[in-house]
Amino acid sequence: MGLKKYHILVADDSRSVRAFFEDVFAKKDNYESQFAASGEEAVEIFRKSISGEIKPFDFVLSDISMPGMNGFETLEEIKKLDPNVKTGMITGFNVDDYIKMALDKGVYNIICKMDSPAEIVRTVDNLITGENLMGIENYLAPGTEIKKVKVNHTSELKVVVGEILDFCSDMLDEEKQYGLKTGLVEMGTNAIYHAYGYEKGSQVELKSTEEVYIQYGADDDCLVVVIADTSGTLTREKVLSQLNKCINPSQEDLVASGGRGLYLTRYLCDKVIVNLEKKKRTEMVLIMNFNNDQIENKPLLVNQF
Asked: What domains appear along the chain, each with residue ranges and CATH number?
């Protein structure tokens, strides 16, 4: 059987960005790419694929900020032509500036142009196929040793957090260790309390039908931690809603105490990926790179199956 080829459409008003993506995707044997210099042009090209003038597209990637029709409007029009086509967005600006619009428009993945070509391609691969998302092994080099710890009681979370911080003490600087610790505590607490409906702050011993586990490992480039629960109750709409309440708070949000954990984790960790398998599993993937660069613009990566 021959290699499955994916036909993708990329819309960006910058000639240099289009040239960059043309080079990136040309190096992948399983991609055939076509480009548009505006949202309007992208819609017209996509319309030709619907009419049969050109082959159908498997994926559409659009820049957000473009003259005329912006990325949200572009994908909205394309979805009218084919509601089932898979889409993603990309930007060189602060993703947080677009969170409210992403929530309103139902957009859950925004890639940063500052990511490496390999990371961009991997993200696009995953958005097209839905594969290689769930599981820590997908975020580490093959053969990396992975440790897994079950958390059955709230008191055990502190112990596991300490183990992970000891494990990476020589890998991360003090600032990144602080960011990781915050993410571990916040996401671990959410997995124990919110996933199963327990009152936050109480001492909880999980039932036999309830499971929380933490996996971690490190390759030459990064440390990866996955915090997972088997409730599968979190939704991508709730994820964006929680982020939006912290980025664009109402008066009520300013005095509320909840909902800041995910925002803090995303802000302090180099990359956070949320994988949601309905009624089965929730994974929070925390990635800390071993370089000392503090990444200001973070992608929005929320995947639901």
From this structure: 6-129 (3.40.50.2300), 136-304 (3.30.565.10)
